[in-house]
UniProtKB/TrEMBL annotation:
<dbReference type="InterPro" id="IPR036282">
    <property type="entry name" value="Glutathione-S-Trfase_C_sf"/>
</dbReference>
<dbReference type="InterPro" id="IPR034347">
    <property type="entry name" value="GST_Phi_C"/>
</dbReference>
<dbReference type="Pfam" id="PF00043">
    <property type="entry name" value="GST_C"/>
</dbReference>
<comment type="similarity">
    <text>Belongs to the GST superfamily. Phi family.</text>
</comment>
<protein>
    <recommendedName>
        <fullName>glutathione transferase</fullName>
        <ecNumber>2.5.1.18</ecNumber>
    </recommendedName>
</protein>
<keyword id="KW-0808">Transferase</keyword>
<dbReference type="GO" id="GO:0004364">
    <property type="term" value="F:glutathione transferase activity"/>
</dbReference>
<dbReference type="InterPro" id="IPR010987">
    <property type="entry name" value="Glutathione-S-Trfase_C-like"/>
</dbReference>
<feature type="domain" description="GST C-terminal">
    <location>
        <begin position="1"/>
        <end position="116"/>
    </location>
</feature>
<dbReference type="InterPro" id="IPR004046">
    <property type="entry name" value="GST_C"/>
</dbReference>
<dbReference type="GO" id="GO:0009407">
    <property type="term" value="P:toxin catabolic process"/>
</dbReference>
């Protein structure tokens, strides 16, 4: 269920924000502020659902880290370097979950390989 939520609800919005706030500035393009505002509101609603779920379990699928959590790591990583980080930080369970998935040794290794 949570992989479907990620792919159909979270990722389209988070990816749009990542494109506007990370990719466009890197390419010297102008950020569409209206698109950012619209998608921040949408992401906030999705993160409210995540917060509710993560009150009851450490990870989206339960007490074990699964692909449902892993699939969030790339776009969450990029969004943590933008103003959208505040949306995650405003929700304590989501904030802790993000810190957990981004601190995993395998994710750190993937980032190291990406730098090469």
């Amino acid at each position: 269920v949570w992989m479907e939520v990620e792919s159909t609800k979270f990722d389209p919005i988070a990816s749009k924000l990542s494109f506007e706030l990370v990719v466009k500035p890197m390419l010297g393009m102008v950020t569409d502020d209206a698109a950012v505002t619209e998608n921040e509101e949408k992401l906030g609603k999705i993160l409210d659902v995540y917060e509710s779920r993560l009150k009851d379990s450490k990870y989206l699928g339960g007490e074990s880290f699964t692909l449902a959590d892993l699939h969030h790591a790339p776009v969450v990583h990029y969004l943590m370097g933008t103003k959208v980080k505040s949306l995650f930080d405003a929700r304590p369970h989501v904030k802790d979950w993000c810190a957990d998935i981004l601190a995993r040794p395998a994710w750190s290794k993937a980032l190291e390989l990406h730098k090469q």
